[in-house]
Amino acid sequence: MPNQSATINVMIQAARKAAKSLLKDFTEVENLQASTKSPGDFVSKADLRAERIIKYELEKARPYYGWVGEESEEIVGKDPTRRWIVDPLDGTSNFLHGIPHWAISIALEHKNEITSGVIYDPIKDECFYAEKGNGAWLNDKRLRVSGRTKMIEMLFSTGIPFANKPGLSTTLTEIEKIMPKCSGLRRDGSAALDLAYVASGRFDGYWERGLNSWDIAAGIVIVKESGGIICSLEKDMNPLLNGSILAASDKIYEEFSSLILT
């Protein structure tokens, strides 16, 4: 069993409380077509409710920390070296369409480094979490990145720009490079879970552009603590700052990154 710190316990408790609210809202998604609510408004309210719960729980336990959340204004805490980075609902489109693949992501940043992360998938009751120096875990099971060494046996994931977002041609070129060499590619709609799946060996690698810090913050420390490698798609940049990320097992990083980064 993992030796969980008080901080990780607080983060997991906040995620589980918010999950109860989201699960209730998720059961109502199927009724949206017959309702007068707009789908976007419905999801916004679900997001906001979940974020309020998380914010309350974290502030109660750590009142001096700062805050960055998808649905609210940034707060500079009395302790300027620490801040929470939170996405109350990663995988909004999946949620809205009744697809049971979405998650809550909570990270703690200390002196510009992500030191703790929790990604909770309420549908599957899978809680991925990690703290710097203490390994990565899925519930009570230790996580390790994939041990596969042959590219042709590997499964990758990415995000594909939609709705006229920039970068589509670049992503399609990268997909064209990698598809003949691997066993498959997934576009699952949740960056947080993509990173968690790299950490747990389900995916061998993942890359995406156009992300926000709250999409990937928790996943970064979880991948690193599971033995994986994280980098930006732009040389010598910080993924948290520029929103582009590549994550891979240590076994495939060189080969995988050479296809994507060139």
Span between termini: 42 Å
Helix content: 25-40%
Order of strands in the sheet with most strands = 2-1-3-4-5-6-7-8
Q: Tell me the number of helical segments per DSSP (H or I, 4 or more residues long).
A: 8
The name of the CATH topology of the largest domain is Fructose-1,6-Bisphosphatase, Chain A, domain 1
Element string (H = helix, E = strand): HHEEEHEEEEEEHEHEHEHEH
List keywords for this structure.
single chain; 262 residues; alpha+beta; Fructose-1,6-Bisphosphatase, Chain A, domain 1; D-Maltodextrin-Binding Protein, domain 2; 2 domains; 8-stranded mixed beta sheet; 5-stranded mixed beta sheet; 8 helices; 13 strands; 24% strand
Task: Explain what the structure shows.
The structure is a single chain. The chain is an alpha+beta fold. It folds into 2 domains: 6-142, Fructose-1,6-Bisphosphatase, subunit A, domain 1 (Fructose-1,6-Bisphosphatase, Chain A, domain 1, 2-Layer Sandwich), CATH 3.30.540.10; 151-260, D-Maltodextrin-Binding Protein, domain 2 (3-Layer(aba) Sandwich). Helix content is 37%, strand content 24%. It is built from 8 helices and 13 strands. It has helices at residues 6-28, 39-61, 92-96, 168-178, 191-199, 213-225, 239-242, 253-260; strands spanning 66-69, 72-75, 82-90, 103-110, 113-121, 126-131, 136-138, 141-142, 155-158, 184-186, 205-208, 229-231, 245-248. The protein has an 8-stranded mixed beta sheet, with helices on both faces. Helix 1 (6-28) runs antiparallel to helix 2 and helix 5 (191-199) packs parallel to helix 6. The model has no long low-confidence stretch (mean pLDDT 93).
